[in-house]
Design goal:
Layout: E1 2-7, E2 37-41, E3 47-50, H1 56-62, E4 70-72, H2 78-81, E5 98-102, H3 104-113, H4 115-119, E6 128-132, E7 138-139, E8 142-151, E9 154-163, E10 166-171, H5 179-185, E11 190-194, H6 207-217, E12 221-225, H7 233-239, E13 244-246, E14 252-254
Parallel strand pairs: 3-4, 4-5, 5-6, 10-11, 11-12, 12-13
Antiparallel strand pairs: 1-2, 1-14, 2-3, 7-8, 8-9, 9-10
């Protein structure tokens, strides 16, 4: 099973509009970060996209991705779902809508905000078939489990994907580590984890919290994501312990 990190940045990306790089070296290409999203692929070539980031079109073009077999959403914040319209071209050569999955609350909000995607409109076909995943645990050649994570006053869904005897966990946008998270994520081959900045934040994990989750779940490899403009790639690489990888746009890893 393979992981492709499409985007590794926070909600404003790096640099921020205004060419604001913060503490990130603009000469280091891995500091240029689009909004977070990942793609996982099994040995059969089946692909799951997690989140439709605001930068989705550019991410798919940059990585040569023309199709996916299913889409999962962690939650409905703009940086995680407002690129949904870029999935439209993936419907062209399909006889049926693209499968999509999210929690009950996220499904309801996505349907309200993007009704044309899930209902069709003005003669255009339905683009996606959106389902709650409460009773579903096998999609496109992957088995999966999930857990709701505190994300400030709301929640975000963390995912555990398994295929070909390997496990990839995606845990972004959380502000507290719960026992249910540890139980769901334990023993992953790759843990992709929220890591906004070094200082604590009210709605996101900071560096110490990200490393704590890696330690508690005994992840074989840990990849930091959702990094803001204070997290210079090379400086952070020198700081993190062995087994922890600083994520960047275009990173590919085999589980």
């Amino acid at each position: 099973m393979k992981l492709l990190m499409l985007g590794s940045g926070t909600s404003t990306g790096v640099p921020r509009i205004g060419n604001d790089w913060g503490e990130c070296d603009p000469e280091e290409p891995r500091n240029r970060r689009t909004r977070v999203s990942i793609l996982i692929e099994n040995e059969a070539g089946q692909r799951i996209l997690v989140d439709t980031s605001t930068d989705l079109r550019a991410q798919l073009l940059a990585n040569g991705i023309g199709k996916v077999d299913a889409v999962f959403w962690t939650h409905d914040h703009a940086d995680h779902c407002h690129g949904i319209d870029d999935l439209r071209v993936m419907r062209y050569d399909r006889s049926n809508p693209l499968p999509g999955f999210a929690s009950k609350g996220t499904c309801a909000r996505l349907r309200k905000r993007f009704d044309y995607v899930f209902e069709g409109q003005h003669g255009y076909p339905t683009l996606m078939d959106l389902k709650e995943f409460d009773a579903i645990h096998l999609v496109a050649g992957f088995s999966f489990d999930f857990v709701e994570m505190p994300h400030g006053p709301v929640t975000s869904t963390g995912f555990r994907f398994e295929a070909d005897g390997k496990t990839i966990v995606y845990a972004t946008d959380f502000s507290t580590i719960t026992a249910d998270m540890v139980a769901c994520f334990s023993g992953a081959d790759i843990l992709v984890v929220d890591c906004l900045r070094r200082r604590p934040h009210p709605t996101h994990a900071h560096l110490d919290m990200a490393l704590e989750l890696a330690q508690k779940t005994r992840a074989r490899k840990t990849v930091l994501t959702h990094l803001d403009k204070s997290m210079d790639y090379r400086s952070l690489c020198d700081e993190v312990p062995k087994g922890v990888i600083v994520g960047y746009d275009g990173l590919e890893l085999a589980a």
